[in-house]
Design brief:
With 113 residues, the protein is an alpha+beta fold. Strands 1-2-3 form a 3-stranded antiparallel sheet, with no helix packed on it. It is elongated. Strand 1 and strand 2 form a beta hairpin. It has 4 helices and 3 strands. Helix 1 packs across helix 3 and helix 3 crosses helix 4. The chain is 39% helix and 19% strand. The protein has 2 domains: 57 residues; 34 residues, no CATH class.
Length: 113
């Protein structure tokens, strides 16, 4: 298959499958699941050419889903509340308070769900 037809097929599938936000790794896997096998490099080249602004945004971390974790300066500065409802079918809900500095449990409550 010629390079131009590869690019056209990848371009068409890219618009159908993931739109402009998928990167080369996710798009390569999605294309493979659809029966089109292309290298990550080729998929990256096609994505860079068909959506330059989105490519630039991906390079600058526009979809960074791992924010910087908070920093607690001392014990009691930040408290993280967590609720577990896995036992709600048995009528129980657990709530925990965890200190952000020491990662210790500072409070716990078991309540009827």
């Amino acid at each position: 298959m010629k390079r131009e037809s590869w690019g056209a097929n990848i371009c068409a599938l890219a618009n159908d499958i993931g739109g402009p936000t998928y990167g080369k790794k996710i798009m390569s896997g999605s294309l493979a699941a659809a029966g089109v096998f292309a290298s990550e490099g080729r998929v990256g080249t096609v994505l860079r050419n068909i959506h330059p602004p989105y490519h630039k945004a991906r390079c600058q971390g526009a979809r960074n889903l791992n924010p910087v974790p908070y920093q607690a300066a001392y014990v009691g500065h930040k408290i993280h509340m967590d609720q577990n409802e896995k036992m709600v079918m048995f009528g129980v809900t657990h709530v925990l308070a965890i200190d952000g500095f020491s990662s210790k449990i500072v409070g716990e409550a078991t309540m009827p769900g």
